[in-house]
Amino acid sequence: MLITTKGLSKTFGGLAAVTDVNFSLNKGELRALIGPNGAGKTTLVSLLSGRLSPSSGSITFDGKDVTKMPAWKRVRMGIAYTFQITSVFPQLTVYENVATAACYGQGINLTTDTLVTECLVNVGIEDRSSIKAAELSYGHQRLLEVAMGCSLKPKLMILDEPTQGLADSEIENFCELLVQINKDTTILLIEHNMSVVMQLARKISVLDHGRIIAEGTPNEISNNSLVQTAYLGN
Amino acid sequence: MDFGPFLLLASLEGLVQAAVLSLTALGLCLTFGVMRVVNVSHGEFYMLGAVIAWWAASILGPKYALSGYLIALFLAPCIVGLLALASERFVLRSLNYEPEATIVATIGILYIIQQTVLMSFGPDAKPVNPPFYFRIDFPWFGYSGYKLFVIGAAIVVLSGTWYVLARTRVGLIMRATQLDRDMAQAFGIPIKRVYAYVFAAGAMYAALAAVLIVPIRQAHYLMGADPLLMSFIVVIIGGLGSVRGAIVAAVLIGMSDGIISMFFSPTLAKMVSTLLVALVLVFRPQGLFGVKTS
Amino acid sequence: MKTHRKLVSLYLHAAVILGLFLAQFFLPDYLYLAVTRVMILSVFAIAYNILFGYTGLLSLGHAMFFSVGLYTAGLTVYHLEWSAAEAFVSSIGVGLIFSILLGAVALRTSGVAFMIVTLMFSQVFYLGTLYFTTYTRGDEGLVLSEGARQFTFLFASFDLSDPSVRYVVAWLLLSLSIIFCYVIARSRLGRALVAIRENETRTQMLGYNTFMLKLVAVIISGTLSSISGAAYVLLFAYAGSSFATIQYSIDALLYTLLGGAGTVLGPVLGAFLMFFMIDITSEYTSAYLLIAGIILVFLVMYFPRGILGEVRHRWLQWLP
């Protein structure tokens, strides 16, 4: 078990965003988290990454209770998070972006330069390493985000809608990249694009109104009546 | 004098202070509330109001004190409003109201206005005669009727503002802009024009307040600093951008400042209140009267 | 970073330091004292730039840090008859304490609130210098006697009222500050601060303790400001309330914006340019703040990168 939550809840001024979630993820998994808009997916992963602190419940990561741990410490423990809206350092070069990320990850036994180059090669933007991030195309900025995540050498990588806004051809490459990364990193993927989910995930968790309403293989999920109701309404 | 009458006198002084302060702070509060712009040059708009009042009075001379005053009451807000309109149009709009850049730019505007006045008006404080002399005799002391007029005028203007904000279309447009700029624009509200008018109106309140106070104080090129700081305090305590909170805070602070200053050193009073307000901003940014959102 | 560019950049900064040293032999008398003064103000601007230019935190309260140093050194020399060296060292300590306290409180806010909070704390300090007028003599200020400004270092004795000693001391302090800022800008700390300026949330989600890093930036910036204040009073023998007014905070901002925020030499260039601009215009008007106001508006509207920032953007991307 890499990460486990027990009775995790988050309320915003009386409104429940996430309610009593018991969720766990095994090492090496590539899990998809899906659900209709406003189901609480981003809130849930924000709780896991530490950007928000829960109203109640607990989170265990890698055998340690991290419920009260600030986000930056969790990153150092091995939880990497990429934002739904592209979030890079626009005025720094691509190389500097990844180098900034490489400082505090689990890969500090490598020299920064080796690590940065490796990550840029893996996502395929090493030829752009000296231009400013602001000058990259949108698709390349998303790849840069993934490279930054990789350079942390995380145990768990949380990707919040990474394929949003990408062209179909880019999505295909992106899926291959995720499969590569998954070889040594556990991945939790929030995704709207169902073909990506069905292609990549071996297990899917479905969130609706802040609760997990189903978990299972892609096949099981697509035949689940609760899930169909959640998406299609009554 | 006994303590009772003394307290009455202090309270009256406090009310005069509160009246002027609530008008000045209301201007700052509107620009911050609607535009999210912190206008550091607000105090200079106030100062300009006072200087224009002096100018009108000195051209017409003591013989026409009342007419000069009435002209100033009309002219000062107009001139200051036009100036504010110009700085909104040519500076703030080009900066796209980006908060930090706007603060730096309004600091620049502050210096430009202040130093221009220094060069033309001179470094000395200059008095303006009240438009009328009228004394109200209490059993213990006499009190200037003009000061009571100031309190009354402020109440009239504040009530008018409240009516406009709460009951008219203008108020509705302003609240819509305050809540969600993009949404308001989508509903066809001309955001740019709203911003321009709000900024001008904010400055006009300051100018009006200064015309009211100038026969009691004096006109001086550095007189803007104090009302600026006090208005900041009021807007922060009242909950950033909340008009009702700002007026309550202005009355409380104006009163307590007026009263405390009669018993303690004004410097100490200012020191303590500034420190407390800074701490309010750090630990309770929604203000003392605001409700925590989110 | 390619090695030869690193070398060019090193030479450039060394040349500026050397040039300032050599300038003393060529300066006309009336500029000698002025340049000494501008060098001390440059140290203040460098300190300001570490927080504003590199970390992206716009403080409107740095006059407080400057005058904390100014008054610590001034009061201890004036009332307790401490030596210049003792006063200088103690002002570093007091500056450090003030920076930690102010940073820990003010950094709970960000953006506009941070600007207003720092402004207000600074205003409290200013009012304090007026209120405790028995010790500070308020606006009128303290004037240190000549005897209080002698000090011995390595068995040699120096007299801080001697113009050439003053020049060298100011030059030394400025040189050390330039080197210090250069090292910081190149260090891991400096890059982390820039990352915070560019995108704080992202930096946090890369494992950086951004609050602590910002606090470190406030401490470095505040303490160095206090050092410049202490040097000011010891060199020029005068401490008054006017140094604590918001105008001094704005000056530091102005120098930094003009010369180029986030460049090592920008604040120095800005301080010197402003000095000469005021010097030239003072023939026509005494309202020098008018110039400051016009330049502020101009910079924010048309030239937000400042001179060296623009140079870096267009030509020399390696400039630290």
Account of the 3D structure:
The complex is a heterotrimer of chains A (234), B (294) and C (320). With 234 residues, chain A is an alpha/beta fold. Helices cover 37% and strands 26% of the residues of chain A. Chain A has helices at residues 41-49, 71-77, 94-102, 112-123, 138-151, 168-182, 194-200, 218-222, 225-232; strands spanning 3-12, 15-25, 30-34, 56-61, 64-65, 79-82, 156-160, 186-190, 203-208, 211-216. In chain A, the strands form two sheets. In chain A, strands 6-7-8-3-9-10 form a six-stranded mixed β-sheet, sandwiched between helices. In chain A, strands 2-1-4-5 form a four-stranded antiparallel β-sheet, with helices on one face. Chain B is globular, with a radius of gyration of 19 Å. Chain B starts with a helix and ends in an 11-residue tail after the last helix. With 320 residues, chain C is mainly alpha-helical. Chain C has one domain (3-244). Chain C has helices at 3-23, 29-54, 62-79, 84-106, 111-131, 133-136, 163-186, 188-198, 200-204, 210-236, 246-259, 266-281, 288-302, 306-314, and strands at 142-143, 150-153, 156-159, 238-239. Chain C has a two-stranded antiparallel sheet with strand order 1-4. In chain C, strands 2-3 form a two-stranded antiparallel sheet. In chain C, helix 2 (29-54) packs across helix 11, helix 2 (29-54) crosses helix 12 (266-281) and helix 4 (84-106) packs antiparallel against helix 10 (210-236). The longest helix of chain C has 27 residues, at 210-236. The B-C interface holds B 38, 91, 94-95, 99-101, 103-105, 107-112, 114-116, 118-119, 229, 232, 236, 265, 267-268, 270-271, 274-275, 277-279, 281-283, 285 and C 58, 60, 105-106, 108-109, 111-113, 115-117, 120-121, 123-124, 127-128, 130-131, 250, 253, 257, 285, 287, 289-290, 292-301, 304.
